[in-house]
Design goal:
The complex is a heterodimer of chains A (about 160) and B (about 170).
Chain A lengths: L1 H17 L1 H43 L5 H14 L4 H13 L4 H13 L5 H34 L6
Helix pairs in contact in A: 1-2, 2-6, 3-5, 4-5, 5-6
Chain B lengths: L1 H22 L3 H18 L2 H14 L2 H8 L6 H11 L5 H13 L4 H13 L2 H10 L2 H29 L8
């Protein structure tokens, strides 16, 4: 994340060298855009904090069920709803793996976590429109199912 | 504007709830506070530089350039560009949404921006390295290798659909 500040600083310096007026315009435009969307980001923040407080235990408890089909389905559903930064998601996946949870379930969880975002809807719909958001997420959900199945086949966990 | 006020209001009430939870030692409230701080740090610190860079992008980069690389006439290479851009986007999807909208208004077509958004979280380089070290390199390679072709195919398909629907992305956001 520090990199982003470094990149921003470098770009700003280059921009100022070329055109001071344009640089101000760019900063103003960026700030205006951010202030406009900020409440939606804050909304997601509140939702995530609440959901995560309830779901972290849920994930560790239930994704490791005996039934791989049920586990994958639960993994995909949880992964689709929530959204986590990698530094939380992967250690969590590591815990699951250590507990003997199958790769298929972990794949379902990790892939849907990345591709499908129900909780990010308040921001996505502002930029992509309602239809754009829904279609993209449905397409991503279908891909998640296909990928989870194929990865299950690869690890020899699906189809016995 | 009215809706913004409501959202800020909800956020303030939420913060108040967290503060009170700290004071009266409410266990659940404390767990929520911990989670909130983790996400807040991850998200809120990334937004200011991301949006300044988006501002610079909109002011400096010409429409022509984007049309040539991400436009409907750009052929298959726009998907490669979109994936490369996604791999280096810090902040994943949170940042990808506004970037995609800016790209679109500079002349990128639907298939590039859908490829971009969906792969923004799939191939982010630092996160993929972390995944490989925890779950395994084989898993990560397989996941990326299998997902990208499907993402590109679905983006091309969504593009066809949206062109037919004459869909327009929101402006002025």
């Amino acid at each position: 994340m520090e990199y982003l500040y470094i990149i921003m600083t470098i770009l700003l310096i280059i921009s100022v060298i070329f055109d001071r007026g344009k640089t101000w315009k760019a900063i103003r435009r960026g700030t205006k855009k951010l202030l406009k969307i900020l409440p939606n980001y804050l909304k997601i923040l509140v939702l995530l904090a609440l959901i995560m407080s309830f779901s972290e235990n849920f994930i560790v408890e239930y994704l490791g069920g005996q039934n791989i089909l049920l586990g994958s389905l639960l993994g995909i559903i949880t992964g689709s709803i929530v959204m986590m930064p990698g530094f939380i998601a992967y250690p969590l996946a590591g815990v699951l793996l250590a507990r003997g949870v199958s790769y298929t379930v972990i794949a379902g969880f990790v892939i849907s976590l990345k591709m499908v975002g129900v909780v990010t809807y308040p921001v996505e719909k502002e930029y992509m429109g309602v239809k754009g958001t829904i279609y993209r997420n449905v397409a991503s959900l279908i891909i998640t199912f296909i990928l989870t199945f194929v990865m299950g086949l690869y690890y020899g966990e699906v189809l016995f | 504007m009215q809706k913004n006020k409501l959202n800020y209001g909800i956020f303030l009430i939420f913060i108040l709830f967290l503060l009170i939870s700290q004071m009266i030692e409410f266990e659940m409230g404390k767990v929520i506070t911990d989670n909130f701080l983790i996400f807040a740090k991850d998200m809120l610190l990334i937004l200011p530089p991301a949006f300044i860079i988006i501002g610079l992008f909109e002011i400096w980069i010409s429409r022509e350039k984007i049309e040539n690389s991400f436009g409907s006439t750009s052929g298959f290479k726009k998907h490669i560009y979109a994936i490369l851009l996604a791999a280096t986007t810090v902040g994943g999807t949170f940042v990808a949404f506004p970037v995609a909208n800016s790209l679109y208004h500079k002349g990128a077509d639907y298939s590039s921006i859908f490829t971009y958004i969906t792969s923004a979280s799939l191939v982010m380089i630092p996160m993929s390295i972390m995944e490989a070290s925890i779950i395994g390199l084989e898993f990560t390679m397989l996941r990326i290798g299998l997902s990208l072709p499907l993402v590109v195919i679905s983006s091309i398909w969504l593009n066809k659909l949206f062109v037919k629907l004459e869909y327009k992305l929101p402006t002025d956001v």
